[in-house]
Amino acid sequence: MNGATVRRPFITGITRAGASLFLDQRTLPRHGVVQSFEADFRAALAELMPRVEELAVGRPDDDTAAEAVRAALAEARDRLAEQEAPGLQGEFVRVKQLATSVVCMCDHLDVLSSLGMCPLCDQPIKPGEPCELNARVGRVHCLCATPARRP
User: pLDDT digits over 62-121, tens only?
Assistant: First the structure.
């Protein structure tokens, strides 16, 4: 390796599923279970937040998606800074808020990363590159949109 940091792919589906499982709890789990989920959610947010922030950086300030990302990042940081709540019920509620932030970051990562990808060829759409908006699949390369290229 040449010293460059290599980022492994982040699988939002698995992360989102874990957070959704915790959010769907109907009974109060044991304290150890709550602590375990908290550690997982903190690790997921540590991985997700920089990626989401990086994707939102180049977007205009008045861009709705970027505005939503900035608000979600601020809320996630606030939630990460919260101290342990008194009692199991309080801790359960606090960790549920972390789970909500995890789901939110997964959603933002999926939305922002798909804005620059052609769903037909799975290649990036570079700034200034000719593309068209397809009502069924979103932005695609002009070449990919031609009938000869369609499967």
Answer: 778 888 899 999 999 999 999 999 999 999 999 999 999 999 998 888 778 765 667 677
140 φ, ψ (degrees, to nearest 5): -135, 155
The letter for the amino acid at 30 is R
- Is the separation of the CB atoms in 89 and 83 below 8 Å? no
Q: What DSSP element (H or E) covers 131?
A: strand 131-134
- Residue 120 · residue 151 · CB < 8 Å: no
Alpha helices in 5-139 (DSSP H): 12-23, 31-57, 64-81, 87-115
**What letter does residue 101 receive in the DSSP assignment?**
H
Judge whether 132 and 140 are in contact, CB under 8 Å: yes
Q: Tell me the pTM.
A: 0.71
Burial (CB < 10 A; 0-12, 13-18, 19+), residue 116, is: middle
Contact in structure between 63 and 55 (CB atoms under 8 Å): no
Q: What are phi and psi of 131, to 5 degrees?
A: -150, 170
Give the domain ranges of the chain.
Answer: 12-115, 117-151
